[in-house]
Amino acid sequence: MSRSETPPARVPAGSPDPVGQPVRRDARRNREKLIAAAQAAFAAADGPVVLEAIARRAGVGIGTLYRHFPTRESLVEAVYAGELDDVTASVPTLLEQHPADVALRAWMGRYATFVATKRGMMDTLRAAFASGRIAAPSRERVTSTIATILEHGVAAGTLRADVDPDDVTTMLIGVFLAITAGAPQEQTDRLLDLLIDAVRPRTSAGTS
Description:
With 208 residues, this protein is an all-alpha fold. It has ten helices and no strands.
């Protein structure tokens, strides 16, 4: 913590200040600024990002960063979760514009691009995928999104009815591990195409 910073008073969460505004509003602003600064820094970097640089970009001290995000992993996961909002929010529009199988492939492509642009947090993100840390609330959101698309696809006959959404999530995480390990775009596209083929209805091709 910078010597010029004064540690915030410990008060009950949600307590009002003297003018009736929730206390810690400044803390929420600082958290938002830190996440925005980290998003920009991680996207622009070709390698690991120094946390002090993120704090400077956000206009706060390093102590403030560590109060909100005690570890690099916690900051990376907050960035990941925040940007996942934008990816999942695209699903209704995709389903309006495309059949469910095409919408699922397009959504997976957006998600893959989202992962691939995290150059400055690749090592941490890869470790989080492998360890399962990201697979808690974020995995549930991804699985829920996939379930929504599958439901539309089953109703239209473009996706299989016997597919477990969590199985699709597991395969998708495998693709993302390949991305964070440096897989070229061509391989990523092939892997996603294979995944989509696996969830489309089986045909009688090859039978007479």
